[in-house]
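Each field is listed here:
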Amino acid sequence: MSALAWSEELVLQHPQMDATHEEFVELLNAAQAALARSEAEGLAAWDALVEHTIGHFGQEDRWMLATGFAKDNCHSRQHDQVLAIMQEVARLARDHQDFGPLQRIIPELAAWFSMHAQSMDSSLAVHLQVAGFDPETGLCQKPQAADAAPISGCGSDHCAPDHASA
């Protein structure tokens, strides 16, 4: 059984984000399958997921900064927290041969990702579209006014109401 199945619920109608998210799901499932075969294979597959996630979160964080988000916004903070946990689980497995946290995190990460994609990332996709942001060029057709306060929330229903328009 897969940790998470790619489905229409995860599609955000943002081609670059959707492709990155689909790859995340594939790598998460690959890590789960590899861990079922052996701890060494599981750790190697987990490391591949961590490397993907560094780029994945970095890409979204750069898009947010380019479109008016504060550097320390709640979406980016969540990325930092999740990535730190993913790296710690790898460290425990690698340095202490403690694979329990790695085995337990996979279903938890699948549940978190599904919620994150459908809330924070969905809001980000809408924000990018409204701003006219082109991820290929980094140009924004409707940049935030120079005197506007940076966006500190994520625009989802679960965040501070200060930026519901994001």
